[in-house]
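User: Hi! I have a protein structure encoded as tokens and I'd like to know what sequence might fold into it. I'm fairly new to this, so please keep things simple.
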């Protein structure tokens, strides 16, 4: 990757500063990406911005050699060990899993489902430590339910537990583990004959694959599944069917736009628009899908296409989420993060800082886990030749960035 970026840049006669300007990134980010080995994580979003500036597909910048070892200690090791034990228990010689001992009382599937709902509420409130503590025992109970009951409802319950694990693990950037959980969720949903649960988990799988940089696979997975789920009549389709179909369409579009397949992404979003219009409101699937989700994604894609001015104009036409009360808080904060990024790209670091501070106040732990937040704050600090403001310093301190 470093050699490819440097070769493409120098082939165009550009300096690192000129590539940074064209890509809407900081010079520091370009230097990190071109270092051999790269200094720190080079995200798919960074590679997409560089690829767009250089006029190549994002995947053209990926490395074709074995990864270098990570020597840093893994954070929250014990919490991750408990989660991994739950989603992928070791197998005995007969192929059956070793299930952690739970209470010996009667299996209560509704109680397990209520527990999963509570964990989902914790996740929505950015209480990630609580999710890591409370979810593994529920998954172990679901394993026991499947082993003893072998019923569709037991498989469906475990599917939802594994889907919740996939959401959490993707959010905390444990992508390989997330994919393990989501594969299990899809298999359980298929066994239970629950196509809606399977579709939601597949959408999550597409998100995880995109995070992992497997853009071609993510787009193909989501579009193929959307084709299978396309309703014969949009007017007669249930809200769940429309939400699952639409969610897959925009997931496929998200992978395509990050791979510079803008025409493909636009076509998928046109179809997603029809599903959202038929729903008329946000409907649960993975998170939610509906007109506001589509509007947010169109704004995000405008930013990914290098049109921050258009991003801000589109954002101004959106209603305030507090007035609408439909999209999930995380989706709203992700949209506001896009706005902050667009503001710094249009040379308004003060207003970008104000938007980011609002996110920090509402969702401090979520913000710490967003690579785009670090890139945006770095760009804010580099854009000001004078001393940074107190608000900028506080924001940088929250993210652990030196101001």
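Assistant: Happy to help. Inverse folding works backwards from shape to sequence: for each of the 403 positions I chose a residue that suits the local structure. Here it is:
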């Amino acid at each position: 990757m470093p050699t490819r970026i440097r070769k493409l840049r120098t082939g165009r006669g550009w300096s690192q500063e000129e590539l940074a300007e064209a890509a809407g990134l900081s010079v520091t980010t370009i230097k990190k990406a071109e270092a051999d080995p790269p200094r720190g994580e080079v995200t798919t979003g960074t590679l997409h911005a560089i690829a767009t500036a250089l006029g190549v597909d994002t995947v053209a910048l990926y490395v074709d050699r074995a990864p270098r070892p990570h020597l840093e200690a893994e954070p929250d090791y014990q919490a991750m060990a408990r989660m991994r034990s739950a989603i992928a228990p070791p197998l005995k010689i007969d192929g059956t899993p070793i299930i952690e001992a739970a209470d010996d009382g009667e299996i209560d599937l509704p109680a397990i489902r209520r527990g999963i709902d509570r964990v989902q509420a914790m996740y929505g409130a950015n209480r990630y430590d609580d999710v890591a503590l409370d979810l593994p025992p529920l998954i172990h109970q679901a394993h026991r339910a499947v082993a003893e009951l072998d019923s569709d409802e037991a498989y469906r319950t475990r599917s939802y537990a594994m889907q919740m694990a996939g959401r959490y693990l993707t959010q905390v950037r444990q992508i390989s583990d997330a994919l393990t959980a989501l594969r299990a969720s899809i298999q359980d949903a298929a066994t239970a004959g629950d196509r809606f649960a399977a579709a939601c988990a597949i959408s999550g799988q597409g998100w995880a694959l995109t995070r992992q940089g497997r853009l071609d696979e993510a787009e193909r997975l989501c579009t193929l599944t959307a084709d299978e789920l396309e309703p014969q009549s949009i007017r007669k389709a249930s809200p769940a069917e429309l939400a699952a179909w639409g969610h897959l369409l925009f997931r496929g579009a998200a992978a395509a736009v990050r791979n510079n397949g803008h025409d493909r992404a636009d076509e998928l979003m046109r179809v997603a628009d029809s599903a959202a219009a038929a729903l008329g409101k946000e409907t649960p699937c993975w998170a939610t899908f509906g007109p506001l989700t589509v509007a947010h994604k169109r704004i995000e894609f405008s930013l990914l296409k290098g049109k921050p001015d258009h991003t801000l104009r589109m954002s101004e036409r959106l209603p305030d989420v507090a007035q609408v009360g439909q999209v999930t808080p995380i989706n709203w904060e992700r949209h506001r993060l896009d706005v902050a990024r667009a503001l710094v790209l249009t040379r308004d670091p003060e207003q970008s800082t104000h938007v980011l501070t609002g996110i920090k106040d509402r969702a401090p732990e979520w913000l710490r886990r967003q690579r785009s937040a670090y890139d945006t704050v770095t760009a804010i600090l580099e854009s000001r030749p004078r001393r940074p403001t107190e608000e900028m310093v506080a924001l940088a301190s929250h993210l652990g960035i030196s101001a």
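A useful reference point when you look it over: Strands lie at 283-285, 287-289. Feel free to ask if any position seems puzzling.
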